């Protein structure tokens, strides 16, 4: 999604409005994200001195892997990006540079989507009480509070006195 900034640079317009859907290239996807829907991008770009203010709303659905059952889980993403880019901007990384009066927003959008990926996702249809294996079992918070370490049993008697 390369945006031409020429009209904004020469002050022919006050802002560039963006309202489109883009596809993130498959080479961006990593092992945590199996798939991504089309990304709905809306917002605007305005000039702030020698830099540019990018204000975007991003909506998409990520397909992630359930941490428990390894099933696919749809994870909705809805974020707002407010970034200053350009010569005097705070973000001067390679992908943020304005080249030939244009800017590619896909790397900026992708970076912000990656920040929204949770560390762990659990499918809503997973029944946690049936999860066990050889020498281990899944303990819920309720079970954890019920079980008392036998070494601390005498301490319980001491505290009740």
Query: pLDDT below 50 for ≥5 consecutive residues: which ranges?
Result: 92-96
What's the number of extended β-strand segments?
A: 9
Secondary-structure class? alpha+beta
Number of helices: 4
Distance between the termini: 71 Å
What's the pLDDT, averaged over the residues?
79
Most strands sheet: 5 strands, antiparallel
- State the helical fraction: 10-25%
Strand content: 35-45%
Rg (CA only):
25 Å
Instruction: Output the helix-strand order.
Output: EHEEEEEEHEEHH
When the domains are counted, the total is: 1
Please give the structural blueprint.
Blueprint lengths: L1 E3 L1 H4 L5 E8 L10 E4 L2 E10 L2 E15 L6 E15 L15 E3 L1 H10 L16 E2 L2 E2 L3 H6 L6 H8 L1
Antiparallel strand pairs: 1-7, 2-4, 3-5, 4-5, 5-6, 8-9
Protein model, in words:
The radius of gyration is 25 Å and the shape is elongated. The protein has four helices and nine strands; from the N terminus they run E-H-E-E-E-E-E-E-H-E-E-H-H. It has helices spanning 6-9, 106-115, 141-146, 153-160, and strands spanning 2-4, 15-22, 33-36, 39-48, 51-65, 72-86, 102-104, 132-133, 136-137. Strands 2, 3, 4, 5 and 6 form a five-stranded antiparallel beta sheet that branches. A two-stranded antiparallel sheet has the order 1-7. It has one domain. Strand 5 (51-65) and strand 6 form a beta hairpin. The protein has 161 residues and is of the alpha+beta class. The N and C termini lie far apart (71 Å).
């Amino acid at each position: 999604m390369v945006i031409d900034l020429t009209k904004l640079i020469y002050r022919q317009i006050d802002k560039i409005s963006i309202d489109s859907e883009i596809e993130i290239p498959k080479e961006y996807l990593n092992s945590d994200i199996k798939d991504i829907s089309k990304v709905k991008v809306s917002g605007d770009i305005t000039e702030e001195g020698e830099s540019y203010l990018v204000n975007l709303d991003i909506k998409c659905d990520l397909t992630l892997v359930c941490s428990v059952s390894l099933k696919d889980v749809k994870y909705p993403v809805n974020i707002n990006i407010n970034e200053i880019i350009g010569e005097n901007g705070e973000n001067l990384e390679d992908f943020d540079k304005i080249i030939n009066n244009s800017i590619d927003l896909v790397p900026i959008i992708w970076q912000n989507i990656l920040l929204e990926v949770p560390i762990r996702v659990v499918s809503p249809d997973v029944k946690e009480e049936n999860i066990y294996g050889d020498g281990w079992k899944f303990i819920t918070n309720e079970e954890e509070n019920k079980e008392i370490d036998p070494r601390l049993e005498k301490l319980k008697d001491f505290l009740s006195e």
